C-alpha cells in the first residue's frame, strides 16, 4: 500500500511526462520543423535545421527583431541555426514564433509580432546558403551581415547596421538608423539611411543613389566609368581623387558635372557629413 508521499511523487511524475510530450508535439507542428529550447546562455542552439536550396534560388527573411548573418559558399543546400544572446535569449526566441520553410527554390525565414510585451533577450540567426542566390531582408530591428552573393540584394531595416561583401546584381538598402557598408556591387545601387555612414564600391556603369540624413559617404568607382554626377552636403566637405576624370563645377557644399564623359546618374546626398569619391 503506497504512502501519501509515494502517491504524490507518482502524480508529479505523470504530470511531468505529459508536459514533456505536449511540448514535443507543439514543437513538431511548427512548419514540420522541430526545435528544442535550450537553457539560457550565449551560443545556445535554439534551432538547427538543413533545407534544400538550389543555386539561383531566393532567400527571404522577415524578422521583427533579430540579428542576421548570412554566410555563402559554393554548392547547394542551406543550413539555419539560431543562437541565444544573453540570459533571456531562449525566451525571446520562443516568443518570436520563428518559422523556416523551403521548397528548393525559395527559403523563407520569419518571426511574428510578439503581442505580450517586450522581451529583453535577443537571438541571432545564422544562415549558410549558396553564393549563387538573391536575398531579400526585412528586419524591424537588428544587425545584418552577409558575405558574397551573385544575385540581387534588398534590405529594409528600421534600425541596425548593414554589412555586405560583393554583390553581383542590384543593391537596394534602406535603414532608418545604421551604417551601410558593401564591398562591391555589379548592378544598380540605391542606398538610404536616416543616420549613419555609407561605404560602397560600384563596379559597373549603372545608376547610383546614396543618401544619408547624417553621416559620411565614401564611394569608390572603377577607373574609366562614366556618370552624370550630382553631390550635395548640408554640412561637410567634398573630396575626390586627383585622377578622377571630372568636368563641371564644385562649390563648398555641392558639385555637379560628369565623370568619364558622362553616363548613368550618380546622386550623392548627406544632410551632415563629408563626401569622398575615389577610383580604383
Can you put this structure into words, describing what you see?
The protein is mainly beta and 280 residues long. Helices cover 12% and strands 51% of the residues. Strand 20 (246-250) and strand 21 form a beta hairpin.
Q: Helices and strands: which structural class?
A: mainly beta
Instruction: Please report the number of helical segments.
Output: 2
**β-sheet strand percentage:** over 45%
Calculate the mean pLDDT score and round it. 86
The major pleated sheet works out as:
12 strands, mixed
Radius of gyration: 24 Å
Topology of helices and strands:
Blueprint: H1 4-28, E1 45-51, E2 53-65, E3 67-73, E4 78-85, H2 89-96, E5 99-102, E6 104-110, E7 122-130, E8 133-141, E9 144-146, E10 153-157, E11 162-167, E12 171-175, E13 180-185, E14 189-193, E15 198-202, E16 208-212, E17 217-221, E18 227-233, E19 238-240, E20 246-250, E21 254-259, E22 264-270, E23 275-279
Parallel strand pairs: 2-6, 2-8, 3-7, 3-9, 8-10, 9-11, 10-12, 11-13, 12-14, 13-15, 14-16, 15-17, 16-22, 17-23, 18-22, 19-23
Antiparallel strand pairs: 1-4, 4-7, 5-6, 18-21, 20-21
List keywords for this structure.
280 residues, 12% helix, mainly beta, 2 helices, 12-stranded mixed beta sheet, 11-stranded mixed beta sheet
Amino acid at each position: 500500500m503506497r504512502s501519501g508521499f509515494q502517491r504524490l511523487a507518482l502524480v508529479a511524475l505523470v504530470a511531468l511526462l505529459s508536459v514533456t510530450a505536449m511540448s514535443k508535439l507543439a514543437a513538431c507542428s511548427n512548419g514540420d520543423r522541430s526545435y528544442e529550447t535550450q537553457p539560457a546562455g550565449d551560443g545556445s542552439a535554439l534551432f538547427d535545421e538543413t533545407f534544400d536550396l538550389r543555386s539561383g534560388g531566393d532567400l527571404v527573411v522577415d524578422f521583427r527583431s533579430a540579428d542576421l548573418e548570412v554566410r555563402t559558399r559554393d554548392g547547394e543546400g542551406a543550413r539555419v541555426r539560431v543562437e541565444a544572446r544573453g540570459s533571456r535569449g531562449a525566451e525571446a526566441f520562443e516568443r518570436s514564433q520563428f518559422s523556416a520553410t523551403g521548397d528548393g527554390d525559395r527559403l523563407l525565414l520569419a518571426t511574428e509580432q510578439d503581442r505580450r510585451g517586450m522581451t529583453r533577450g535577443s537571438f541571432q540567426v545564422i544562415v549558410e546558403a549558396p553564393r549563387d542566390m538573391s536575398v531579400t531582408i526585412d528586419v524591424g530591428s537588428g544587425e545584418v551581415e552577409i558575405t558574397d552573393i551573385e544575385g540581387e540584394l534588398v534590405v529594409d531595416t528600421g534600425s541596425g547596421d548593414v554589412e555586405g561583401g560583393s554583390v553581383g546584381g542590384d543593391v537596394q538598402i534602406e535603414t532608418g538608423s545604421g551604417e551601410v557598408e558593401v564591398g562591391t556591387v555589379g548592378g544598380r545601387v540605391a542606398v538610404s539611411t536616416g543616420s549613419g555612414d555609407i561605404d560602397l564600391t560600384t563596379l559597373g556603369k549603372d545608376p547610383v543613389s546614396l543618401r544619408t540624413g547624417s553621416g559620411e559617404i565614401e564611394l569608390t568607382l572603377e577607373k574609366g566609368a562614366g556618370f552624370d554626377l550630382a553631390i550635395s552636403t548640408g554640412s561637410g566637405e567634398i573630396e575626390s581623387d586627383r585622377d578622377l576624370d571630372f568636368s563641371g563645377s564644385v562649390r563648398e557644399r555641392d558639385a555637379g558635372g560628369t565623370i568619364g564623359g558622362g553616363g548613368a546618374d550618380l546622386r550623392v546626398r548627406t544632410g551632415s557629413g563629408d563626401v569622398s569619391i575615389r577610383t580604383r
